Each structure stands twice: as structure tokens, then as C-alpha cells.
Amino acid sequence: MCTLFHLIIGGARINAQTKTSIDRLNPGQQQLVIISALTATGDLANLKIQLHTALDAGLSINEVKEVLVQLYAYCGFPRSLNAISTFMNVLEERKAKGIDDKQGKKIIMSNITTDKYEKGRKTLEKLTGTPQVKPAPGFGEFAPRIDAFLKEHLFADIFDSDVLTYQQREFATISALAAMAGVEGQLQSHIKIGMHTGISKDQLAKVAELIEKHVNSAQANVLNKMINKPILPIIAPDMMVRISEIEIVPEYLEEYKSILKEESAESVKIEPGVISLFAMYQKENPLQVRIVEIYANKEAYQSHLKTPHFQHYKTSTLKMVKSLKLVDMTDVDRQTMLDIFRKLD
Predict the structure, then answer these.
(1) What domains lie within the chain, and their CATH numbers?
(2) What is the pTM of this model?
(3) What is the side-by-side strand order in the sheet with 240-248?
(4) d(C-alpha 273, C-alpha 40), whole Å
(5) Are residues 271 and 304 in contact, defined by beta-carbon separation less than 8 angstroms?
(6) Could you report the per-residue pLDDT of 184-241, keeping only the tens digit for each?
(7) In terms of Cα–Cα distance, which of 242, 220, 336 is closest to 292?
(8) How many other β-carbons are positioned within 10 Å of the β-carbon of residue 266?
């Protein structure tokens, strides 16, 4: 009886440990998520800090390298290369301080000599657990070269390296996609692949928490919605509301309105923290332009100022603006303000 009791208690303990391990992210997994998200968003200042933390958490140099290399396929060469350069600087700083980080498994360049497309197709079948026809339906039939690049390079050359497991690669990919706006279809696909590699919904919820902390709530909500987790409030206590009062030089009015229209639309479309850039002009005096600017928080505003589209607007319209006054506002009744947005939706 005593033996049976110990077996039951022991079994319960094992089950509890197993459940705990699949519901949380260990320190290495957390850093995979964070550095992937920051690489995807191009936040190099915070990426540098987190790369130090990643090495301190036990990730090897080659594991980090492999993550940053893989991400070029998801967020582009420029951001991948910038992240790699940042990592080089981090390693130089640590070496100068006498910190000896572990190198990890050797990175071997792909030596696949047989049909790379077939190798990549079979890898994708393992990742998804579903048959992969040749060519891929839809985009693969329309653009065979992109189908070949995906199979031969991403899923053959890159995934051929065993420095990272398939699950680690999916943590990196999901995190990068969750951090970027406008890639919901690809994120949905990789959530399915990630879960097939053993990533749990609760772990994905933890990924969303890290995206909220290191990117923003709006992007975290994209992931939360896909895994049926509660949606986070986007507007923070430090929400910024501002009215820009602008007077335009007469001969530039039409050109200015065109540039402003493009910049406002782009900002609202791709920046989750930009709630409103509502541009207007006075009916009796079109040279008097007003913009109602609402940002989810101060961080979103600072991020907006660094975007290429805002920088283009600022430099292009400098000669067109006769006067500019920025008037910071605060709400009389925040709840009513929120209800306005719900009603518009």
C-alpha cells in the first residue's frame, strides 16, 4: 500500500513537472523570443542589451548567430545584418572584459549535394506534419522561383544546421512575425508549425507577454487573438494626445497635403501605437492645417519619430511649413473617448 502511495505521488509529481515545463519558457527560450522580436523591429539599442542577457542566460554564440542569420528570411537582410553587427560589438565588449562565452555546436555550411528542393520539401513535411506537393499551391505555381528559394535555401540550407532545434527555430520565427505588422497569414502558419514541434499554447501566451513588454501591446494582441487568449488594452496611462497647428506656405499647399496624406495613412496602417493622425484644414482658410495626433503611449510616439515615412515627411515639408505649434492635450472623460473609437469600429 505504501509503495502504491509513493508511485501515485511520484507519478503526480512527474506530471506536474511535465506540465510546468510545457507551460513556461526557460531563460534561453525567453531570450530567443526577445532577440528575435527586437531584430525584426530593428530596435538595435535594446537588442544590444538583450544579447548580453542571452549569453548570460546560457545561449551559445553559435545559437545566437544562427537565430540572427535565419531571421533574414523573415525580416530581410538589412535588419539581419544590423543585428549581426550589433552582436559582433557585444562579443568584442565581453571579450575585452574577460568574459569567455561558450561557442556551442560548430556551424557547418550546408553540404547538400542532392536535390535541395526535395530536401527542403521533406523538411517542411516534418515541420508541418502534412504532405507538401510540388510546386506549393497558389504562390508556388504563380512564382516558382520563390517556391524554390523557400524549399532549397530556407528549409534545406538554413534548416540543415543542427545548431538550433526545429522548435528553437520556430520560437524565433513566431516571435519575429508576431513583432511585425502585416504578416498575420505567415504568423498563423508558423503557430501551427510551432505547435507541431511541441510548443504549447501557454508558451505562446508567454511569447505574447514578452512581445507586449519589448515591442507593444497591439502586436502582442495579434498573437493573443490567434491563440484565443485575452486581448490586452492598447491605450496606456501615458497615452499622448496632441493637436498640431500648422500654417502652410501658399504655393506648397497641394504638395504638402499630398505628402501629409501619404504619411498619415502609412503611420496608422503599419504602426500599432499610432491610434490617430487625423489631418484637417480650415474651410475658410485651407492654409491652416490641424492634425489630431493620438499615440498609445510615449514610447509609441518616440518610435513614430524614427520611422522612415515620418522622416521623409519631416524633411520633405520643411520648406512648406510657415509655422508649427504643438499643443499637448489631456482628456476630460477618457471612457467617452474610448467609446468613440468602439463606435467607429
Answers:
(1) 23-105+162-226 (1.20.1290.10), 240-344 (3.30.70.100)
(2) 0.71
(3) 274-281, 288-295, 240-248, 321-329
(4) 16
(5) yes
(6) 999 999 999 999 999 999 999 999 999 998 988 889 999 999 999 998 876 667 889 9
(7) 242
(8) 18
